[in-house]
Amino acid sequence: MKHYPNAMERLTEQFAKLPGIGAKTAQRLAFFILGRSEEDAMAFAQAIIDAKKTVKTCPVCQNLTDAELCPLCADQQRDRGVICVVAEPKDVLAMERAREYNGVYHVLHGVISPLNHMGPNDIRVRELLGRIQQGGVREVIMATNPDTEGEATAMYISRLLKPMEVKVTRLAYGIPAGSQLEYADEITLLRALEGRREL
Prior knowledge:
The chain has 2 domains: 6-54, Helicase, Ruva Protein, domain 3; 64-172 and 180-193, Dna Topoisomerase Vi A Subunit, Chain: A, domain 2. Helix 1 crosses helix 2 (23-35). Helix 5 (89-97) links the parallel strand 3 (79-86) and strand 4 (103-107). The chain is 43% helix and 13% strand. Strands 4-3-5-6 form a 4-stranded parallel beta sheet. The chain has helices at residues 6-16, 23-35, 38-54, 71-74, 89-97, 125-133, 148-161, 186-194, and strands at residues 56-57, 64-65, 79-86, 103-107, 139-142, 167-170.
């Protein structure tokens, strides 16, 4: 037996399709939207429609943009000789928060994941190779996640880049700032040892 009108059920189902949103949260979001004024609800719906219509991928780095180039590719102060390869657009924001990196990016829009039916042709590897073939790239930093899929993707791309005589590096992973050694797992400690540097 249905407890709510069909339109409410459909709204809840749509919210439940969002990542990290379970049935109860989807229902709370549906109630929230229904509690807003019609103006607010229309503005919310219009923002989704506008984003779908105007946001596209940057032809250079594949990041999201609503202009000809994304702001990072348009910035002439950035070092185009260093490309940081990330899996998703949100990873660009994470890297930029550090305010230490001044190169450019390449967004793959996924990682190689046979379980999720994602192969090398399903991510933006071809576009990366094209950028490097144009010349001027000194280093490619692989900044995919340190999980199985991220590591496999980094290794695959590094093998493709080997004949191109470009330096390929991997982000160092280790013990997070503010944590304690006793809580670190073996893989984290191994990465911390491998990524150690002279003081």
